[in-house]
Amino acid sequence: MYDVIVIGAGSSGSVIASRVSEDPNRTVLLVEAGPDYANPADTPFDLINSHNNSYTHHDWGFDFEPTRGRSVAFPRGQVVGGSSAVNTTIALRGIPEDFEEWTQLGCPEWHWGNVLPAYNRLERDLDYGQAAYHGDAGPITIRRYPDEELEPQQLAFLETAGRLGYPACADANEPSGWGAGPHPMNKVGRLRVSCALGYIAPARARPNLTILAGTRVLRLLFTGRRATGIEVEHIDGRVATIAAGLVVVSAGAIMSPHLLMHSGIGPRDQLEAFDIECVGDEPGVGQNLSDHPALAVVCEVKDASLIDFDRPIIQTILRYTAPGSDKRNDLQIEQISFAGRPNGPPLFSIAAVLEYQYGRGELRLRSGDPRAAPMIDNRFCEDERDTHRLVACMQDTLNFARTGELADMIKAISFPDPARGDDDESLAALCRKFAGSGYHPSGTVKMGDIQDSSAVVDQFGRAHRFENLVVADASIMPFVPRANTNLTCIMIGEMIGEWIRTRPNDYRW
């Protein structure tokens, strides 16, 4: 029997387990399906190497349909640290307007004035820690590459941005800022500063914190509508039950709704189709999938020595607003240092990313077996507002490939094929067919007012219609923020972890 069980040791769950276990009178169990590398010396290189993502060695093996009829891999971290242990280490915050919009959707606790202190608390910003809108003593170290450490194509991207009239932005996390500059990144040299390193490593010595790795949670257990524990499957195949006073689901925007549905919480028709007993009909579970649709201009370079797959994959960013849009900073352009395969032609790419998405996808069960991966349909660019702005971003990205210092490096544009045209109509067809994911799934267990039938949890992460059940990760976001999601997931862990630690009576256990 534990006071609190946290399911998932990712960017939110690690933080919650760390913060709640600061109270020595609360016993906390952190359950993770993947491995735990408690000794830093035993940590595999793919988890240390922040120059590129870890794609396969610590992955769930999901696939998804970004656009209809096209299935591709959807990497998600399966390890203590979750996706923070395998990602690109981009430490970008959502902007104030994201959270003001969340408040308008029934979540007033998430206004900018509340989330900013949590963002500050999580970070140790080596460049701007003295600023009022930054932190200098948190567990996640953040820095930006200075010009002298930029790859040549990354420096050329910034020089080209200036030539195209975009302002320089030294700190992409300045709340009102926009323009081109270095990415804030949670890395020191080559070392990825994940939540496993920043939050779990310092907490391991606490006798009230137990980490149970290599253990898949099959379902939540209920007495009536009160969560009482979990059923787990250990790595050796043993199945066991563990009791809890409070169950916190932090398995991410893919696995949190998947686990809820296999526990009988979800759309009734979907549960009944797989003979899953319906504990509560929650039509919003698995719906409202929000992400960042993206497409890239792929370029062959003149000088093959520019392309080194052992160098940082990304270092710079442009945040800006689409023409005529009322959603500030709804577009990004990013220089990717290398593309294709190491033994192929020398390529890099320039990514066009839509940061404010109107369209929504969904996540559905594939079978009644909780071990089976879910079906993920993003449905990118089915909303014309998304297509229109992503096309505009692609046109701007093509301008980068044709201008100044960046253009001087390029031998030819490989994609989109110049022979097929680059007018808006042609690019729109490409977006509808080939738009990919920024790998920032969100919104599948949406928080909101109880009067909203699609809202599953309230603004504190508490299930509306169940007791002693909390969801806390990217799945509760009403929509994806205008930024890579890792830092916002950590911030969610900070907010809800502190609420559970300091206001336990509000969580009814």
Précis, in short:
The protein has 509 residues and is α/β, with parallel strands linked by helices. It is built from twelve helices and 25 strands. Strand 15 (265-266), helix 8 and strand 16 (280-281) form a beta-alpha-beta unit.
Rg (C-alpha, Å): 22 Å
Please summarize the sheet with the most strands.
7 strands, mixed
End-to-end Cα distance, whole Å, is: 13 Å
| Class by alpha and beta content | alpha/beta
Count of DSSP-assigned helices: 12
Question: Structurally, how many domains make up the residues?
Answer: 2
Low-confidence stretches: none
Choose one word for the global shape: globular
Report the top-level CATH class of the largest domain: Alpha Beta
Which fold does the CATH topology of the largest domain refer to? FAD/NAD(P)-binding domain
Number of strands: 25
The averaged pLDDT comes out at 97
Describe the protein in words:
It is built from twelve helices and 25 strands. The chain folds into two domains: about 1-45 and about 195-290 and about 440-505, FAD/NAD(P)-binding domain; about 145-180 and about 295-355 and about 380-435, Cholesterol Oxidase, domain 2 (2-Layer Sandwich). About 55% of the residues are buried. Strand 9 (about 185-190) and strand 10 (about 190) form a beta hairpin. The protein is globular and about 65 Å long. The protein has about 500 residues and is α/β, with parallel strands linked by helices. The strands form seven sheets. Strands 1, 2, 11, 12, 13, 14 and 25 form a seven-stranded mixed sheet that branches. Strands 7, 17, 18, 19, 20, 23 and 24 form a seven-stranded antiparallel sheet that branches. About 25% of the residues lie in helices and about 25% in strands. Helix 1 runs parallel beside helix 6, helix 4 (about 110-120) crosses helix 12 and helix 9 packs across helix 11.
